[in-house]
Amino acid sequence: MRRRDFLISLAVCAAMPLRAIAAAALPYREVKGPSEDASKVLAFFSLTCPSCRNIHVGLSRWSKTLPKKMAFEFTPVVLPDRQSVVGARAWYAAKLAGPASLDTFAERAYALIQDEGFSPDNPKLWRRAAAGAGIQGFEAAWQRVSPAQLERAAGKLSAYNIQATPSVVIGGRFVITPDDTNGDISLFFNLANGMVSRVMGAPA
Fold first, then answer.
1. What is the pLDDT of residue 203?
2. Residue of 54, 99, 162, 194 with fewest CB within 10 Å of its CB?
């Protein structure tokens, strides 16, 4: 085991209850993604997911601390159901129309779905979220979202065998979730930083 792996495992195990330690080999899953993701961090999320809501702002802030060589991308979960497809299309429409307002759009959408009970396939939800974020031209952007964008997101979900949200894929090599740090968000971001350093070949 490499020194960095050991230190990460030591920190994570220190935060775990005894019953969880036996099941935890390493606090990440190693994968082999496409070469196009070698310099990317993909954060898989769903606007219906309370855990995603709790960490969304933190992920957005953390993304701004990444090295310039690592691009960050929130990637909506696309499953074979209408609600997730509509939700992903809304996200990409907001990204087209108001990329600087995505954090506010996400905040409004999370609140409308999780607090006010709006269904993700209700057009009023997305109009209200866009208006609340001050995004102009949302409906025109909606028409510009291509099926290829949605298929790409669905393909990434499948390629990395994402089973839980939020999940973060780093450099196409490692998948981590807050569950890997027993829900400790501070430790999760420490783990994420360690994985980014490892992908970039930083010295141990």
1. 46
2. 99
pLDDT band of 27, cuts 50, 70, 90: confident
The two structure tokens encoding residue 125: 């939800």
Residue type at 94? Answer: A
Average pLDDT over residues 50-57: 97
Classified as helix, coil or strand, 57 is helix
- Residue 124: CB atoms within 10 A of its CB come to 10
Ordered by start, the domain boundaries in the chain are: 31-172
Return the ∠ at Cα 48 (arms to 116 and 176), rounded to 5°: 145
Q: 147 pLDDT exceeds 90?
A: yes
Task: Give the residue from 52, 179, 64 showing the smallest Cα distance to 111.
Answer: 52
31-172 under CATH 3.40.50.150, yes or no: no
- What's the length of the chain? 204
196 φ, ψ (degrees, to nearest 5):
-65, -45
Integer Cα distance of 81 and 75 in angstroms: 17
Instruction: Round to the nearest angstrom and report the end-to-end CA distance of the chain.
Output: 12
Q: What is the dihedral of CA 127, 129, 131, 137, to 10 degrees?
A: -60
Coil/strand/helix, residue 145: coil
pTM, whole model, 2 decimals? 0.85
Tell which residue, 71, 73, 75, 72, has the closest CA to residue 87: 75
